[in-house]
Amino acid sequence: MGLFDFVKGIGKKNTASAEPQPAPAASTTPAEPSAQEIANKLLGHIKALGLPVTGLSVTYNGSSDLATIKGQVQSQADREKIVLAVGNIDHVAKVDDQMTVVTPAPESKFYTVKSGDTLSRIAKEYYGDVNQYNKIFEANRPLLKDADDIFPGQVLRIPA
């Protein structure tokens, strides 16, 4: 798919990790996580969502806020969900998708949530019917746990 831009600092804080983290040492200012720590948390976040991918690897470049994802997925939908799972995290500004898809399919459209948006409003814009909001919600599961849990700057999949 290529390179995707996201809004850095607006995404959800990522506290997921592949393994338990020790308690931070007491200090007056919290230390910025290293690029490797962020990459490990992104990897843990993808695994925690249960998205099916083989040979998954995630790297993170802190100077450019770029996350690079490699691996193989069965469907285009899984590929897009993984890109969005990584891109909608606060440290990430760009995602370089280097994954391969076993069964290629047309790409979904992506939509960046604006202040005041709801899934119903987005459904009205794309499908002409507010009641199609569930189509967008289901296309973004497990990234969304609740149809009302969207935030400005978040990027969503909009299926055809």
UniProtKB/TrEMBL annotation:
<dbReference type="InterPro" id="IPR036779">
    <property type="entry name" value="LysM_dom_sf"/>
</dbReference>
<dbReference type="InterPro" id="IPR052196">
    <property type="entry name" value="Bact_Kbp"/>
</dbReference>
<dbReference type="InterPro" id="IPR007055">
    <property type="entry name" value="BON_dom"/>
</dbReference>
<protein>
    <recommendedName>
        <fullName>Potassium binding protein Kbp</fullName>
    </recommendedName>
</protein>
<dbReference type="GO" id="GO:0005737">
    <property type="term" value="C:cytoplasm"/>
</dbReference>
<feature type="compositionally biased region" description="Low complexity">
    <location>
        <begin position="15"/>
        <end position="33"/>
    </location>
</feature>
<dbReference type="InterPro" id="IPR018392">
    <property type="entry name" value="LysM"/>
</dbReference>
<keyword id="KW-0963">Cytoplasm</keyword>
<dbReference type="Pfam" id="PF04972">
    <property type="entry name" value="BON"/>
</dbReference>
<dbReference type="Pfam" id="PF01476">
    <property type="entry name" value="LysM"/>
</dbReference>
<feature type="domain" description="LysM">
    <location>
        <begin position="109"/>
        <end position="158"/>
    </location>
</feature>
<feature type="region of interest" description="Disordered">
    <location>
        <begin position="14"/>
        <end position="33"/>
    </location>
</feature>
